[in-house]
Amino acid sequence: MTVVVSHSSNPEGRHALVTATAEARSRGTRLVVVVPTSPSGAAVGAVGGALAELRDRLAQVGVEHDIVEATGDLAETLVLTAARTDAELIVIGLRRRSPVGKLILGAGAQRILLEAPCPVLAVKS
Asked: Is the pLDDT of residue 38 over 60?
């Protein structure tokens, strides 16, 4: 069993990672971090060394973890990773939206919620 989290270098991604780390610790499970990357392997929206920094941060908090790089569709990678690792929870970060924006949930988040093989915790920053 695992906790799977989508992480990027924005506030939503950082908040999701903190929440997922706490969930993995409290459940006594492994944390699987899905990081969107470009086809060249560079973390999207982050400067070089972002993956090494992430690995160091996770090692410091002492939670067992794996990092999965998503070069394609992030929602699909999250759902497939959750199924492959027998996840008991997926954690995603959402940004605050305007009143009109609240009528429409992001397409990726909606796909994750509808296709996930386990509960999904949406964390807003």
From this structure: yes
